[in-house]
Amino acid sequence: MVSTSRQRIAVGGMAGPPRLSGKEIVLAVDELDKAAELHPADRSIHEGRLFLCLASGQFERGVASLELSVTQHEDAGADTWLQYMGSFPRSAAEQAVAFASIIVRAHPKSTEALVTLGGWQAVAGETAKARDSLTKAIAASATDAMAHWRMGELLEQEGDRKGASRAFRRSLSLDGPFAEERQAVYDDFVEQAPQR
Q1: What domains appear along the chain, each with residue ranges and CATH number?
Q2: DSSP state of 12
Q3: Which long-range contacts (CB under 8 A, 24 or more apart) does 184-190 make?
Q4: Span 104-130, pLDDT tens digits
Q5: Which of 69, 108, 152, 155 has the fewest CB atoms found within 10 Å of its own CB?
Q6: Model pLDDT for residues 145-157, shown as the tens digit of each residue
Q7: 74 φ/ψ sector (left φ>0, alpha ψ -120 to 50, else beta)
């Protein structure tokens, strides 16, 4: 069973909200596709299309939409596109990795983008790629609490409890989001230490 604190940290980028459904949503996305072709400089059209694609569970279409949006709006910062990462459920980890990869390609120096990509790569079971992304994120910003936290999750997933504990403790020593939740999850982690 996953603790409430662990769920809250996951919601910070790896859980996803309820889905919208219906033919109307599909038709609305179709109309936004047409509008984006007519007015490619209007970023609000692109963002509306991304929102509807992801909220309706059209993840592959969302990935394709992001590719076009990033190309047409090179001036948009990584945070413009990262805000949509919370729309992916864990069951769409493959598409989340593709989405985050586009953001990292467009913003290779964004620590948050690298952390997000690494976290989703871990969820998708791409542990070597996750380690690479998270290592780059930590190298870019050694004081990023979530970079260390996601590395700890990866190490825990791989069965390296000592490494995970070091990464979690480093994360807890830094300012960052979900401080109370991270502490609660770490406390649970310590309590679940293997008995000898």
Answers
A1: 1-14+111-196 (1.25.40.10), 17-87 (no CATH)
A2: T
A3: 184/3, 184/4, 184/5, 185/3, 185/5, 185/6, 185/9, 188/3, 188/5, 188/6, 189/156, 189/164, 189/165, 190/165
A4: 999 999 999 999 999 999 999 999 999
A5: 108
A6: 999 999 999 999 9
A7: alpha
